[in-house]
Amino acid sequence: MSIGWFESIGKPQLVVAPMVDASELAWRLLCRRHGAQLCYTPMFHSNVFTKDPKYRKDSLVTCQEDRPLIVQFCGNNPEVMASAAKMVQNHCDAIDINLGCPQSIAKRGRYGSFLQDDWKLLQDIVTAMSRAVSVPISCKVRIFEDIEKSVRYALMLQEAGCKMLTVHGRTREQKGPLTGIASWKHIKAVREAVSIPMFANGNIQCLEDVYRCLKYTKVDGVMSAEGVLTNPALFEGINPVTWEMALEYLDLVEQYPCPTSYIRGHLFKIFHKIFTFQDNSDIRELLATGQNLEHFREVSLKIKEKYLQYHEGKAHFENSDNITRNGFDLILPPWICQPYVRISPEEHTKKMDTLCKNQFVNGSKRIFEDPDGNAISRKRMKKLRKIMRRPVKEDEQHNGRSGEICTNGTCRNPLGGKCEYQLCKKCCKNKCYEEDLDCKGHRILVHTRREMAKKHAKEVT
Question: In this model, does residue 248 exceed pLDDT 90?
Fold first, then answer.
């Protein structure tokens, strides 16, 4: 069934990866317009998907042009995973199991790459899902450090009923600033061992990388995540102008709406090189605080207005020192879609060591202060910075807060706007408890409940 199925969807080679909050319908359609032959949905939580109709409706948004399509689930319960698979089998061409997510949230939820040590459970999940639906079940995995164990892992999944495999050539520990280079050597070894269709994932920054990977590993197709986020036309083999891609994407969002956070994230990725320049901080701030499509269009048009003259050759763009970031020279102009190049894990480690040394003066930790000069924790400083980045809304009182601080001299919490005693909720609760009071603003009814208790006690006696 696997080979016939794979041929029926055109034996795709150019694949857009499943990305949480990033591979929604509008983005998938943009990538399809520019060379992608197969797309995955974002990862869906199988347990929530089966229990929450709203989550299910909001998650599985697709259309006629959105094919071939693979829906991805995460989870650790074979029955629940099989139930979720049944709900989507008529809307996709295959169903994928996420066995590659390395994030801490996956560790807490016990899914993704944190299932790769429980082979018995994985066999049960793959088998249960394969028996439950008529479409193929695929798996997206990460490698082990040991090549032979990676091969045995892949063969185990194939024997359990997996009909297609995607191998990300990095271990579970290779993430964030420690991502490093993916091992195509591992991917090649797995490809030589399994007999089902297989995709490779990792080290794809341009179309030439795709062809190099196909040639070396002999896989059936290549998947990209970070590469297509910074250049949606990666599979088309071009590096388009950033504002053209952004505006085209926004047109698709207008037709197929998605959460504002998704849009903002995509535009930050597309414009990532432009925002390395300090003189673009005002545009960056507009993007960070934008609340609707018009704000995001304004960001794109402002960037176009600023850089079009350089793109058309009407003005000379100076190669200033600002163009070099993290030790890498910018080859393409910043207004062109291009890869995001991470620093190496070794450089990151060295950088963090230097930072740690700078944070310790005379044996003490770095001191953080609030705007009034009071010493605060690092956690509180991060929270204050986040608050400062929030847009100032006309309806400033919409949440009942004025921005003032609790009148209790030892407390720095925000003042409850409707509190009768001008306190935060915690201080107000303590006051009501100690002084036998009520606060309607905070809905604290200590006095009322005590009176009810006394009345009830009298009635009983």
Answer: yes
